[in-house]
Design goal:
- This protein is an alpha+beta fold.
- 40% of the residues lie in helices and 26% in strands.
- It contains 10 helices and 17 strands.
- The strands form 6 sheets. The chain has a 7-stranded mixed sheet with strand order 1-14-9-2-3-4-15, sandwiched between helices. A two-stranded antiparallel sheet has the order 5-8.
- The longest helix has 21 residues.
- The chain is globular and about 50 Å long.
Length: 322
């Protein structure tokens, strides 16, 4: 037994040192300056991007991931850990926000503060401008950033042997490629990507998608923490390597920080946390930038204030006003 424990520890330590050197620390959260003061607890920004890095033409076709030039994000979750547990707050990509003044790195053109969809900040200025925009509109200071692309997402799900999900209804969506039956089933990487991307079959559109993304992330953390995966050296390496290839983090994030993030998500899947959508007041609101989602000012301000001061989170009401 002692020999077995020693072997597992040696494998884990070896994996830790190797994986820490592979982290892609390209994001400087201080690049824009003028950031909110540090609050209590820790805030992570988890981003699922539409990066096609690591995918062949065949993969793009198989995953229904073709087209879509530029860089966008399909999911954004602020995960807060503190004295009162963990809260996962989804920010819909079509949220109407103020994008702070910035210089577009692709064109060199400088723009002043302007109203736009939250997703536009990521397209215009990548992780740095997205983080700055979220900080500007919430008052929260983002301590760590973690982003994963399509290839890493698919590889991680496949590496853990798929993720078990129970669906209340069947889902068939041509755009994302989702073709799932009602009931409990194990989703492989391709099926999982289609599930978290689809929104046209959701009555609440993008809000429904963000709820699905939170449920899936919690289930994935639970599956990845299974003893059969964590303690088996033959499973540790494929699982870690599968995600690191397209994982982007900020310059101050260590593997220990990612481990803390993982355990926080796992605690939510175990019922020790809250999964919340930012409170909204309108869906499909017409603007010069297309239809958007507007936040409920009073409720969202209270939510972000509770997170900033690490107080117990009050679950906001679900139904937005049309």
């Amino acid at each position: 037994m002692l020999g077995l424990v020693a072997a597992v520890l040696a494998g884990a330590v070896g994996t830790y040192g190797w994986a820490d050197t592979k982290l892609n620390r390209d994001v400087d959260l201080d690049s824009y300056g003028d950031r909110p003061p540090r609050g209590k607890g820790t805030n992570y920004l988890i981003v699922g991007s539409d990066s096609r890095d690591g995918l062949s033409r065949g993969d793009l076709k198989d995953l229904h991931a073709g087209g879509g030039g530029g860089r966008r994000t399909d999911s954004m979750i602020v995960l807060h850990t503190g004295a009162h547990g963990t809260s996962m707050v989804s920010l819909p990509r079509d949220s109407w926000v103020t994008v702070p003044g910035h210089t577009n790195p692709a064109t060199g053109k400088t723009s002043g503060p302007t109203g736009n969809k939250l997703n536009a900040a990521f397209s215009y200025g990548g992780p740095q401008l997205l983080t700055r925009t979220i900080e500007y509109n919430t008052g929260l200071r983002i301590d760590h950033y973690a982003e994963i692309g399509f290839a890493g997402f698919v590889n991680i799900v496949d590496a853990v042997g798929g993720v078990r999900m129970c669906l209340e209804r069947g889902i068939k969506d041509k755009k994302s490629g989702a073709d799932l039956k009602k009931g409990c089933q194990t989703l492989n990487g391709k099926q999982a990507l289609a599930f978290v991307r689809q929104r046209h079959q959701e009555a609440e559109g993008d809000l429904g998608r963000t709820k699905n993304q939170q449920k899936f992330l919690s289930s994935l953390a639970h599956q990845a923490a299974d003893p059969g995966t964590v303690l088996d050296p033959s499973e540790i390496y494929p699982t870690v390597d599968a995600g690191l290839d397209t994982l982007v983090v900020d310059k101050d994030t260590s593997l220990r920080d990612l481990t803390t993030l993982f355990r926080a998500v796992q605690s939510v899947s175990g019922g020790k946390g809250k999964q919340i959508n930012v409170p909204v007041s309108g869906i499909g609101v017409p603007t010069s930038k297309g239809s958007v989602i507007t936040w409920d000012r009073k409720q969202s301000r209270r939510l972000f204030d509770e997170l900033r001061h690490d107080r117990p989170v009050t679950t906001p009401r679900e139904r937005p006003r049309k």
